[in-house]
């Protein structure tokens, strides 16, 4: 896949501004004492015993604004793993027991804010690992993370984050470039070869579309409508869906936040569309059921819900998450939960909590050392700085979610 140079250069400029604008502050000390948390920052003051220290892990993501629910889903998994590790007495590295202090900052889904927050987390809290759950924030942070010596735990399926030559970036979810081939094959065989495009109007939606359309055409398909939806502004989907349906598509490509994506799909059905949907990985079937029934989106293909995972630790994770948060966990929560456990295993094997290069070098071994009861999805190792997950594609058939083998 070609590198998106314009996008990267814009992020480079953002990152350079971050470098010049940020200033230092207080630090979090071992033993859990800290300066007062600034507005928008979440910290927990931990009590430690002799030979115990506090390890700060950073998170910058959207905790307010339109993407707040997505941000809360990602951080909830990291938080739950943190609490479990601490409740079990922490983890030991070279004779010292560490408990984790999760420091979270709100970036409102803005790349420049994510860069600023990451720099603060390193300067003020000595974090060697920072979770960043969106591609814009990852690109902005990649400008300086190797110089500042911290690992980016990147929750984004954007493939290009691993084409920048950045050795301290770990991609957590599967890259989305693995999905177009099975998506296209399934939809063209079941519904036909006329495609309408109605993805989210974000850069992520544009990149997904750029990956999908060539595969659609290589299989003999044609794009009959090229549109996009700004879910931050558009609330009435009937006009744009009507325009798309006027071109008689067999399949519609949709995606964005789960609930508005479901409303878009429902609008298509209400207007008489009987074809299939290809749903980009940002939207989740398990979050759509309050808006649209599975019967109404028959023939849709997208991500297999985490509740359908048969991994050894899935059932206990789901039960605990539902009990703690009162909702069904999504991949965002589950993958980030598992990622923190893998990072801890890598730290133990590396013999360090503050050398990100040594930690990254042990990440594949950390996956293989992960206890089975923490395996909530099938993870086989690390390849080219990205977690290598077993494919998790699902389609709606006869009103039920069915696993599609790749």
Automatic annotation (TrEMBL):
Pfam family, one: Peripla_BP_6
Keywords recorded for this protein, A-Z: Signal
Domain Leucine-binding protein: start-end pairs: 56-365
Gene3D superfamilies in UniProt: 3.40.50.2300
Keyword Plastid tagged: no
Residues of the signal peptide: 1-23
InterPro entries assigned to the protein according to its UniProt record, in alphabetical order: BCAA_transport (IPR051010), Leu-bd (IPR028081), Peripla_BP_I (IPR028082)
Family designation: Belongs to the leucine-binding protein family.
Protein name: ABC transporter substrate-binding protein
Organism: Halalkalibacter alkalisediminis
């Amino acid at each position: 896949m070609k590198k998106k140079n314009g996008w990267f250069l814009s992020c480079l400029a953002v990152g350079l501004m971050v470098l010049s604008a940020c200033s230092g502050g207080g630090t979090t000390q071992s033993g859990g004492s800290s300066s007062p948390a600034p507005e928008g920052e979440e910290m927990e003051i931990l009590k430690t015993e002799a030979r115990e220290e506090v390890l700060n892990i950073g998170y910058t993501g959207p905790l307010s604004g339109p993407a707040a629910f997505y941000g809360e889903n990602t951080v909830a998994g990291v938080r739950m793993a943190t609490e479990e590790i601490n409740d079990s007495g922490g983890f030991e590295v070279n004779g010292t027991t560490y408990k984790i202090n999760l420091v979270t900052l709100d970036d409102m889904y803005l790349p420049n804010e994510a860069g600023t927050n990451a720099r603060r987390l390193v300067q003020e809290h000595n974090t060697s690992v920072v979770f960043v759950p969106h591609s814009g924030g990852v690109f902005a942070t990649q400008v300086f993370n190797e110089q500042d010596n911290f690992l980016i735990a990147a929750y984004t399926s954007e493939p290009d984050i691993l084409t920048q030559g950045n050795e301290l970036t770990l991609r957590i979810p599967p890259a989305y470039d693995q999905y177009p081939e099975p998506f296209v094959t399934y939809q063209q065989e079941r519904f036909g070869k006329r495609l309408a495009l109605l993805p989210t109007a974000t850069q992520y939606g544009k990149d997904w579309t750029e990956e999908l359309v060539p595969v659609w055409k290589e299989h003999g398909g044609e794009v009959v409508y090229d549109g996009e939806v700004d879910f931050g502004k558009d609330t009435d989907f009937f006009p744009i869906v009507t325009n798309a349906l006027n071109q008689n598509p067999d399949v519609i490509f949709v995606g964005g936040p789960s609930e508005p994506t479901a409303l878009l799909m429902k609008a298509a059905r209400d207007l008489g569309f009987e074809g299939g949907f290809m749903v980009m990985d940002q939207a989740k079937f398990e979050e759509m059921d309050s808006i649209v029934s599975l019967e109404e989106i028959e023939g849709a293909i997208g991500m297999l819900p985490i509740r359908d995972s048969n991994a050894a630790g899935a059932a206990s994770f789901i039960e605990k998450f539902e009990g703690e948060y009162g909702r069904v966990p999504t991949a965002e929560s589950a993958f980030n939960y598992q990622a923190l456990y893998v990072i801890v295993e890598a730290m133990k094997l590396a013999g360090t909590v503050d050398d990100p290069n040594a930690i990254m070098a042990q990440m594949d071994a950390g996956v293989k050392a992960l206890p089975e009861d923490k395996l909530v999805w099938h993870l086989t190792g690390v390849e080219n700085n990205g977690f290598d997950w077993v494919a998790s594609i699902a389609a709606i058939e006869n009103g039920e979610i069915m696993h599609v083998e790749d």
